[in-house]
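User: Okay, second chain of the day. Same drill as before: sequence in, structure tokens out.
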Amino acid sequence: MSLIDRPIRVDADSQNRPVAFVWRGIRRVVAEVLEEWREIGPWWEQDPPEERFVYRVQTQDGGVYEIDYRIPARQWFLYRIYD
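Assistant: Same drill. Structure tokens below.
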């Protein structure tokens, strides 16, 4: 497992769920959302606390990635790659 935590470009559906993303210049199409959840950061670290919508996805090429949409930043991040 590799921790990345870098901004990425994501194509999302009408419910803001990822359908594809670009990592290292390659567009990766999401075959399946394996898991999704919501996280809220500690209130003492940021006002308002950071809210994240997290998705563990499997791409068509078989890779498994954890990507998240962060509020209030309004930005997608590739957080982790599962090896």
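The mean pLDDT is 93.

User: Thanks, on to the next one.
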